[in-house]
Amino acid sequence: MERGEVGAAHVTTPSVQPAGPALSRNTRRRAILGLIARRLAFAFPVCGVVLFGVFLLAALSPFDPLEQYYGVRLETASEQDMARVRAELGVDDPVLVQFGHWLGGLFSGDLGTSRSFRQPVAEVLAERLPWTVLLCAAGLLVAIVLSVTLGVLAAWRQGGWLDRVITSVGHALEGIPPFVLALVSIAVFALALGWLPVAGLTDAGAALSVGQVARHLVLPAVVLGISQSPWLVLHLRQSLLTALTEDHVTGARARGLSERMVVLRHALPTALLPLITLIGVRVPELVTGAVLVEEVFSWPGVAAAVVQAALAVDFPLLAMLTVLATAATLFGSLFADVTTALLDPRVATDG
Amino acid sequence: MAELPQDWLAAGRDRAGTPRGGQLGTRARLRTVVGLGGLVLLVLGAILLPWLGGLDQTNVDYSARFIAPGVAHPFGTDANGNDLLLRSFAGLRVSLLVAALCAVVSTVLGALFGALSGALGGWPDRLLMRLVDTVNAVPHLLLGIVIVALFRGNLWAVVASIALTHWTSVARIVRAEVLALRERPFIDAAISGGSSRIRVLRRHLLPAIVGQAAISAVLLLPHAVWHETALSFLGLGLPPHLASIGNILTDARQAVLLGSWWVVVFPALLLVLTTLATSGIAAGWRDRLVPRRRSELAL
Hints:
Chain A is an all-alpha fold. Chain A is built from 14 helices and two strands, in the order αααααββααααααααα. In chain A, 33% of the residues are buried. Chain B: It is a multi-pass membrane protein. Chain B: This is Peptide/nickel transport system permease protein.
């Protein structure tokens, strides 16, 4: 690894030296590619099992698709008519046959039709996914900036008043659900101070523009970021404290480097590595947070669609969103493992 | 050779990452005591206050709508003119009961699963653990929403939704514990004495993991409260006649837009206090059982 890559120079102080540099770099690259391939191969069966599990749950549920199909007209529908629709929807087929039909549809690119949005599922996803990605990316950015700043400050003065404030606020925030944070922030910044809009993607009737979206993005993104940050802050503080006791930090101190240099250039890179892993592993919590934040701020993303789909028992959409979230989780853990393996040559790539 | 500065001790104390003030051990003990005391107070309040105050949630009194916190109503009143102090504690009681039920169900489920997996070993173990990985790959709230959506409208849907998503962590912990126990001489002795796998599991392994399982149940409690609140907030949780803190917070959404901040703040405060108290107890307890993990306490 070349000097100058993200903190790599400081991370690589291994107790066991790798064999030859050229040879080890090639084997390393192959091992990481193997890790990615294995994980991807594992991801498909997992998504399949999740799909099947969700389908089984739907089959077990007392919910009647005919009722959904007919709505209030169920009272007046004739027996023959109902029998025809039953046969058309395949309600009476065995569960496995129904699953096969549905899966066949998925593979031929037909994701089904969403009942709650009265649109094909693929269209719903295409319209809403970009907004969720935007919100999650902005939220994650806020969370990372917050956690690195506060984590370093807390560890720098361990036990001081700043550390105590940061740690206890962090612990308290762990217990506050994101929607409470969202409601309070709406009350303060949108209603009392009137700085930012209450909800939505644009002002009522306004055209979609970068400025509008940016203004509406601030509150949801900051709330999402703050709700994700306590774990990151506390974790970074802890790993930085551990890093500060390591030999290379003692060495840096012994060479008379300034505190600033010691903490930011020698201890922090080692401590950032576990943070990357944590961010990758916490993707499910990010998704959960996005569901709640989008719901409160009426953000038109896929996460808010989960709630609408659930309230309307919109099975095709609900199943696709579940698989999408599963894929995001698996990707998060893959990202964490690959980044760690790339940055730290001591880490094994056994998966 | 450079001389050490006169105040080298003080200079050392100024180094980054040097702990100052307070013994860690004492602080952990303090946290346990404060947590336990706080939880007892909250539970007592949840049991006694709605009863003493004569709360009737079906009562609607529009003349007493949205009264700001004051002497007569310390937490203020909500959209129906109910006293929010009484209503929040009544909601807390529902939340705690549901959470305790969920924690127990998922702990039993997870402990049995983990013990079975650890005791069987080999390919059944690997298969069961893959299943745990798969369940974990779906974000918990999302899986919970799917379960509640498909079996809507009663308490058991919520319990199932929380129990079916939270047992995996218990299963992992218990399996690790069983794997460690399997190496111990008393298990070897039982096997050489001719005990069957099932008997070893029932007589020797399960009793040994009860402590771990109990900690897991306590640790799950705040998660279950959180999860239930989120479901109820989204309108997918408990039916309105079993109003939990989550249901109260749903009502609070409109109230906030009308400018009544107290309808959100006080119920949420109870929620946070409960979480903090429980995590304080759990951390202290774990600390006592596994002193080696003391450094992880801050997490």
